Amino acid sequence: MSGRSSRRPTVFRRSRVRALVAVVALSVLAGCGGPGNAASGAVGAPKSGGTLAIGIESEVDVLDPQRAGGWVSWRVNRQIFEPLVDEDLSKPSSEAAVPPLRPGLATSWEISPDGTVYTFHLRPNVTFHDGTPFDAAAVEFNIRRMWDKSFEFYDAKAAGQTTFVWQKLASVTTPDPMTVQLTMSQPFEPFLRLLPQGGSGSSAIISPTAVRTYGNDNVAEHPVGTGPFKFADRVRGQRITLERNDAYWGEKPYLDKVVFRPLPDPSARVAALRANEVDMIAVPPPDSVQGLADSGFQISDGAPPHVWYLSFNMNDPITSNKLVRQAINLAIDRQGLATTLLRDTVKPAYDVQAPANAAYVENTAAYGYDPDKAKQLLAEAGYPDGFETTMMTSVDGSGQIIPVPMAEYIQQDLAKVGIKIKLDTTEWISYLTKWAQGTSPGVGWAQQSWGMTTPYWLYIATSSSLRAPNGPNVGGYSNPELDRVMGEAISATSEDQAVELWKQANRIVTDDAAIAPIVNDKAPYVLSRNVQGFVSPSEEWYDLNRVWLSS
Amino acid sequence: MIGFVLRRLAWTVLILLGVSVLVFLLMQLVPGDPVRTMLGMSATAEHVEEVRHELGLDRSLPVQYLSYLSGVLHGELGQSLILSQPVSAILFPKLLNTVILSVGSLLICLLVGIPLGVIAGARQYSLFDRGSMFLSLAGASVPVYWAALVVISIFALQLGWFPTSGMYDTRDPGGFGDVLYHLVLPATAAALVPTAVIARMARGSMVEALHGDHVRMLRASGVPERLVIWRHALRGVMPPVVNIVGLQIGYLLGGIIFVEVVFNWPGLGGQLYTSITAGDMPMIQSGVLFIALVFVLVNLITDIAVALLDPRTRKAA
Amino acid sequence: MSSDTITATGTAGPPVLATTWQRRSQFKLAMRALRRDRVAVGALVVLVLVTLAAVLAPWISPYDPLAGDPQLRLLPPFSEGHLLGLDGQGRDILSRLIWGGRYSLSVAVVPVLCAGLVSLVIGMVGGYLGGRWGDSVMRLLDIVFAFPIVLFAIALAAVLGAGLVNTMVAVGVTLVPYMSRVVYTATVQESAKEYVEAARAAGAGHLEILRKQLLPNVLSPLVVYGTTLAGLVIVLAAGLSFLGVGITPPAPDWGVMTSDGRQVLLEGYAHVATVPGLVILVVALAFNLLGDGIRDALDPHKQTA
Question: Where on the tree of life does the source sit, at the highest rank (chain C) (predicted)?
Answer without folding.
Answer: Bacteria
